[in-house]
């Protein structure tokens, strides 16, 4: 059987299954007792294994099989979900992704995965990757008698819970001598324990712990389904914890009580931990899903075909403009009516084709939760990623380019913005930092905002670094607004990192962000508040192929200025022109705006002009504005953006060209480059 015809489908579906594995593993980390999540991961892995075996990629199939064995052990209750186990499964998914990308690039999909296979086999046989933690827990989890004094009601609850299959542990925690915020550490420990079970009692009591009326040690008893290793591992991750020991409380230590006193408590614990509704609600839910499930009406289309379709439509737009010009010349009612109808139909067709090329930003955002998890682990920080508006759509061309800039911004926010849990707690913040990634439509643009609740940008430090590196002079620094100071971090070679690391310090990341976004016809702005956080806002055009422009005359040549850059048009008198710093400027609505004469910028041949006024187009880039001097305004039009090719890609302030209805070529002005 010829497999090459199915290769593309295999690659796409493999990527989807691996993405599903990543998403569900992150969910499993938050809800380790939810078997429905394990089943989802198992299903995706099983599908991937079957496809890989069918296509003849045995290494890929074998690794997936080993991972599948571990998942099967978890869902059958043989293995527990621990941080160590999840790390190994994440590592296996990374290797599987590398193999799939190798196949996509024309490789054979082979990779040395012996290390991760060995770890998976150890887990499958009942060993844990974190042997040191296991030995420590085994050494401490030997006591059988309770150290706390329990009321009769508490004793009965524990007795009944153990009969229902729960485990009862007493966890003794010692804080470090230099711990400053003891109550905060106690709160973090209680929060972790309450996620995994039900806290029964503490010594000292909770009110004394909250008021820090204790020395360094406290003990908590908990009912849970978690393993001792998992509990100790999580508590030890809390900062300023010196020692954690755990002792099981066995059945038979307490006298019994009436069953009806404790039954509701046990049922509540079971429901909280399993997260399963009662059978009646499950049947109702299944019925609702059955009713709501729509039939799938989608097909996979090769993106190259969409590109060809778009190129053909662009030619149609050019011919449409030509027909409109011809109909104006002949002024024939029937011709005008036909052209108007064709314009409406082609407009509808344009909307459909552009929508076909639209891809949800979710395809880019999906890779970030996993990246944030790893970075937080590497930097010993606690970070939550909050994603909003992942369904917002952008042109595929923009989607392909926007991934790397967002990676740089997120790494910057985590490394420079979010503080360590100790520093955050000291400043009265939650130990968990939040990075919010948000996308939304506004007009013909898509906005992507990245916001963190970290330390914010230190203006004085940024300004001093910029002066030291010669990016701005001391005199210029005095005139800069707050936002202009923040935007200095986007300069080439700029970095405030004290030392070079794998994550930051080279001063190239944010420079790449700005240049990439501007090459897409977008812009980036930065806002920050000291001690509260920063927000990076990216504005992008919906599509790059067909854009709305203002056509203008500059002597005998025509130019197109993108409407997204234009503030307004105006006509000014020559006597209103002022001079400042050897440059012509105007006072426009109380703001000094420099004049740029396009005939001089583009060296257009011209004769002496005796006119007593100028036609200007006010354009912006962020907070900067400029007035472009033209001869006359032609009007607004939708045009097809064509590249100038490799030989003409270095022309200053020109982003491309378009063919007008009368056959003339109009150059499209890059306002960002002009204002720079």
Record keyword descriptors for this entry.
46% helix; 676 residues; single chain; alpha+beta; 5-stranded mixed β-sheet; 22 strands; globular; 6-stranded mixed β-sheet
Class inferred from helices and paired strands: alpha+beta
Return the average pLDDT rounded to an integer. 81
End-to-end Cα distance, whole Å, is 59 Å
- Give the C-alpha Rg: 32 Å
Helix content: 40-55%
The count of helical stretches stands at 24
Proportion of β residues? Answer: 15-25%
Shape call: globular
- Poorly predicted runs: 130-145, 255-263, 279-296
The number of E-state strands comes to 22
Biggest sheet layout: 6 strands, mixed
Strand order of the largest sheet: 14-18-19-17-16-15
Structure, described:
- This protein is an alpha+beta fold and 676 residues long.
- It contains 24 helices and 22 strands.
- The strands form five sheets. Strands 14-18-19-17-16-15 form a six-stranded mixed β-sheet. The chain has a five-stranded mixed β-sheet with strand order 6-8-9-11-10. A five-stranded mixed β-sheet has the order 20-12-13-22-21.
